[in-house]
Amino acid sequence: MNDVSKVQLDLLALALSCDLTRSASVMYSDAKNHTTLPFLNVYQDVHNVSHMGDDDPAREALYTRDAWQVDQLVTLMQKLAASPEGDGTVLDHTTIFWGSDVSRGNTHAHDDMPFLVAGGGTGWKGGRYLRFNGRPHNDLLLSMFTALGGSATSFGDAEFCTGPLSGL
Q1: Strand boundaries in 21-127, DSSP class E
Q2: Which of 102, 84, 100 has the alpha carbon at shortest distance from 92?
Q3: CB 121 within 8 A of CB 97
Q4: Distance of alpha carbon 144 from alpha carbon 101, whole angstroms
Q5: In contact, 52 and 126? CB cutoff 8 Å
Q6: What are the tens digits of pLDDT across the range 85-132?
Q7: Which pairs with CB-CB distance under 8 Å and at least 24 residues apart come from 143-149?
Q8: I want to staple 61 with a disulfide (CB 3.0 to 4.6 A). Which of 42, 84, 85, 137 is the partner?
Q9: Are 36 and 43 a contacting pair, CB within 8 Å?
């Protein structure tokens, strides 16, 4: 998987740099995966490990997987930052959204969901940690959609979208 990820990220960076695409998704597995990661010395089923208690030493496998995924994200961002485009770089004109479908796998919680938004494509000021207590994450998705030129007043299930976020 490590070699495949490297090649896929190289292809993605090239496709964005050559303007062959302006949209892409990178997903290493779905939420119900039952994979192991032997190239990281993770031989446990990572999905099942995510359901273990916070103090369970087996959760170290989850942290190892997460660290590897962050490394992949950083690698992609470095490739985009090294590619000139117009008055900046490809990263300057790209928005990267990184997140998960739950904030805590062992409780399936959706509160305190951490997300990362990187790149300059939305025009938002970067380098900040923002907290939007109690706001559904669809509000962030709606904010991204409108920042990228979309026109909508809701995103996803209207019950879970209260409007765009301010201060981005």
Answers
A1: 84-85, 88-89, 96-98, 116-118
A2: 84
A3: no
A4: 17
A5: no
A6: 999 999 999 999 999 888 788 888 888 889 999 999 999 999 999 999
A7: 143/168, 144/95, 144/97, 144/117, 147/95, 147/122, 147/123, 148/95, 148/121, 148/122
A8: 42
A9: yes
